Amino acid sequence: MSITRISLAAGVALATLVAASQASAAAFYLQEQSVRGAGRAYSGEVADRGAASLWWNPASIAGLDKNEIYGGVHLVQVDSQVNNAGSTLTRPVIPGGLTTPVGGEPYAGGPINNGIVPNLAGAFRVNDKLAVGLSVAAPYNFTTDYNSRSWTRYDALKSNLKTIDVNGVVAYRVNDMLDLGVGVSAQYTDAELSSALPNLSPLLPDGSSSLKGDGNWDYGWNVGAQFHATPALTIGASYRSEIKHKLDGHVVVSGLLGPLAAANVDTDGKATITTPWMANLGARWQVTDKTTLNASVSRIGWSEFDQIVVTYPNGGSVSEQNYKDTTTVAVGVDHDVNDKLTLRAGVQYDPTPTPDVGRTARVPDGDRMLYAIGSTWKATDAIQWDAALSYISFDDTKINRTETIYRGTAAATTLNLKGDVGGSAVVLSTGLRWSF
């Protein structure tokens, strides 16, 4: 394989895997893991009890009186706009290069696809102190889709990231004041991504690149505790480890013409990425017989996602990501209207870990505020129905990324991507909890 083809294959694999990792709300993390939690903006789950809180704290099931099954689904509806703000492409034309607008459709409406996020969990009582649990979640799932004529096409066309997380838990009640829990998480990831590639002449049609990456089952761990300071006050804390993922990818490049024709390629490659660790601290305080206040602080270790390493036959590449750790803050309230009905509300501030310089069109992330309301209806002594409605307001933000296509070759072409982004989302959540 020629140097040009090797460099191009590496660049395509690297660009597409980087994009997959960025394609999600709050970078690439979906926090919709509990319908009950959604109703109070996830402000109380680390200090609450039952199978619905397993994602947030493995200690939540210690000392259960009954077995419990939880199932929930979240319908995510996104309204987003991505507009060109002067993006250019500089081709290697002697003497100083030829800089032209990227062209294409200057406005992209709704590139972030709507989606469904399911969760399932079970908690099973062994004795008065010991319980075991299992949760199945989809923490990193997102899809964006741009028109093939979009101004974003050299950076992003389609991005599809899917994960499955299966977490086994053992929890133990030490005494009336302290519960402990530990879990092992198995996580699977795959991705499908595509983008356009420019030919050397602006008069020629674009080429294309695509990647399908299949991961393996990779593993992490989580621990948690709940301290029942008084009958009215519970403080919860948990930690979920980072997970290093290894993806096996298949890269296809086609449609390149003239001097670039030799760079059309069909090859295998590998990449490694690391998902962040998460540390949660929260409390639930029952201020009256009917009203409970909730608060939580989450520190997310996005700096673990500092680079993506790609290897392929006869070479490899490293892409720096420069993500920063973030702190998410939420407050909420639960109010028992009567023995059958509980109402909830909450608000959350969730900052983006993505750098202002380097943000892409794959999913341009921004700081957000989440406002939520919810309820629980106790249908019978054994069955509770949870529902929630969330509205997410995204700060207006900028796409600002410069990258070199065909880096390290005489065909090196500079993409200077600039855009304006705005949007919001609505999440409808519903679920059931069954105790027996």
UniProtKB/TrEMBL annotation:
Gene3D superfamilies to which the protein is assigned, alphabetical: Outer membrane protein transport protein (OMPP1/FadL/TodX)
Record's signal peptide: 1-25
Membrane topology designation: Multi-pass membrane protein
Keyword set, alphabetical order: Cell outer membrane, Membrane, Signal, Transmembrane, Transmembrane beta strand
Highest rank taxon of the organism: Bacteria
Pfam family, one: Toluene_X
Localization per Swiss-Prot or TrEMBL: Cell outer membrane
PANTHER family noted in UniProt: LONG-CHAIN FATTY ACID TRANSPORT PROTEIN (PTHR35093:SF3), OUTER MEMBRANE PROTEIN NMB0088-RELATED (PTHR35093)
Family, per entry: Belongs to the OmpP1/FadL family.
Protein name: Long-chain fatty acid transport protein
